[in-house]
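Exercise 7. Given the encoded structure of a 449-residue chain, write a plausible sequence.
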């Protein structure tokens, strides 16, 4: 019976798949397929390495891992007769399985250099939908020099932003104009002006404001930049407007051109909804402005710790492509995010070298500049000591509600944030500092019980 079965396979030229063991029979000739699993393999310096957490579905972990490696590199669900010997070196290799953790090395020649969407279509593509995995999480990637050097990275980074804003010794303070949608242009510009006068360094649009009829992009940009100039003259400080240019790619570039013409310091872009290709287009255009990355929609794939792509990976891509500041979370604010994860992301984007941890791979960023971390979402002055303690002073602390809901108004709200930063930098408790600072007192009375 078995003999007849083998004859049948030979006749059909089909594959016999005995779980991990593949034998292809091509017209009677055995062809050794690519080895996607080799626990003795030592990754080369030029390999891109991925750290996955894998929950297999009705198969062994080894089999699931092998299928992740093949589907994300050169293989498919069955061995194909079109495979050639010369492509064997392109196969990804599972080289470590430890608990649910799986490390896979990808030869860098699998990827087109300088093409972020292409890289993600392999290592973060079809694999998340494979029936062979119940859950699959891409925790981190280690990017080799060959790929790093094919991207621009941030134009300004932390040092450049500090130089632009002439603020060297404290976190920068930002606000988001609220209400997030609906204000007419004139009122939008007035809120920005009040926030700058109170002490904000940066004022940004919200993620879902672009060029709606109630507040058109061009007029908003001109009027708000005019207020930034006025605030600079009046305060003697640098003030930046982070205008949201998120739009269809050509339109986004057109809007960024206008920001450059009008002398803006920053543009802001929603990196996930805009798309990584378009983000590269913006960075490649090499405008004079710094790029602020808002991450709206990221939680659709970063939030479930068992499935999807981690914020660490998104942060890697954003640094690689070249944004200058990136939202990484707050721990204490309104949005989900744990301290250990957020502080490790903070290191990943701000340091030149990061070492391996449970959720991160080692990375040497070489000449790619550091990105300034942004904490935003549900923040008020009472949170400032915690943020500086855990994320350091190379930080943009942003508050929308935490400034515009201060009982004394927007300018006072901004002043309260500056007071909280000043107190923390001088190691004075907020409570003590608020005894002589009415704006901070109003904030603490409202939010810190
Ligand atoms: C903050 C914010 C930001 C979020 C984004 C908002 O406003 O403008 O978009 O911080 O989250 O609309 O929620 P508030 P993250 O200060 O009024 O909360 O930084 O985590 O990506
Ligand atoms: Mg927002």
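Solution.
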């Amino acid at each position: 019976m078995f003999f007849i079965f083998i004859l049948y396979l030979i006749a059909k030229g089909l594959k016999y798949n005995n779980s991990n063991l593949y034998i292809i029979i091509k017209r009677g000739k055995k062809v050794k397929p690519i080895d996607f699993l080799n626990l003795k393999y030592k990754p080369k310096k030029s390999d891109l390495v991925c750290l996955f957490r894998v929950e297999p579905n009705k198969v062994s972990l080894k089999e699931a891992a092998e299928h992740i490696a093949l589907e994300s590199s050169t293989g498919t669900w069955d061995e194909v007769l079109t495979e050639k010997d010369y492509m064997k070196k392109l196969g990804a290799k599972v080289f470590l399985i430890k608990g649910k953790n799986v490390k896979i090395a990808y030869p860098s020649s699998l990827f087109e250099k300088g093409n972020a969407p292409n890289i993600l279509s392999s290592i973060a593509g079809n694999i998340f939908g494979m029936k062979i995995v119940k859950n699959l999480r891409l925790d981190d990637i280690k990017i080799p020099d060959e790929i790093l050097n094919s991207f621009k990275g941030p134009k300004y980074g932390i040092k450049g932003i500090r130089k632009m804003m002439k603020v060297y010794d404290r976190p920068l303070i930002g606000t988001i104009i609220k209400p997030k949608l609906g204000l007419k242009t004139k009122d939008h510009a007035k809120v920005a002006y009040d926030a700058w006068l109170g002490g904000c360094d940066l004022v940004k649009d919200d993620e879902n404001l672009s060029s709606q009829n109630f507040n058109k992009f061009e007029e908003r940009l001109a009027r708000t930049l005019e207020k930034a100039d006025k605030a600079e003259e009046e305060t003697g400080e640098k003030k930046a407007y982070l205008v949201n240019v998120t739009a269809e790619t050509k339109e986004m570039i057109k809007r960024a051109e206008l920001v450059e013409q009008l002398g803006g310091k920053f543009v802001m872009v929603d990196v996930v909804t805009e798309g990584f290709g378009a983000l590269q287009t913006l960075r490649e255009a090499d405008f004079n402005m710094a790029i602020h990355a808002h991450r709206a929609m990221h939680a659709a794939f970063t939030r479930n710790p068992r499935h999807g792509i981690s914020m660490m990976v998104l942060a890697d891509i954003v640094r690689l492509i070249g944004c200058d500041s990136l939202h990484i979370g707050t721990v204490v604010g309104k949005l989900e995010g744990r301290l250990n994860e957020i502080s490790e992301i903070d290191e990943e984007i701000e340091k030149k070298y990061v070492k391996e941890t449970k959720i991160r791979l080692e990375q040497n960023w070489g000449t790619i500049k550091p990105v300034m971390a942004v904490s935003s979402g549900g923040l008020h002055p009472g949170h400032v000591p915690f943020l500086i303690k855990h994320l350091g002073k190379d930080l943009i602390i942003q508050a929308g509600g935490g400034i515009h809901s201060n009982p004394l108004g927007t300018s006072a709200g901004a002043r309260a944030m500056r007071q909280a930063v000043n107190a923390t930098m001088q190691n004075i408790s907020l409570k003590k500092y608020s005894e002589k600072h009415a704006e901070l007192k109003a904030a603490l009375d409202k939010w810190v019980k």
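Remark. Residues 176, 180, 206-207 surround magnesium ion (ligand 2) (CB under 6 Å). Students should compare their own answers with the one above.
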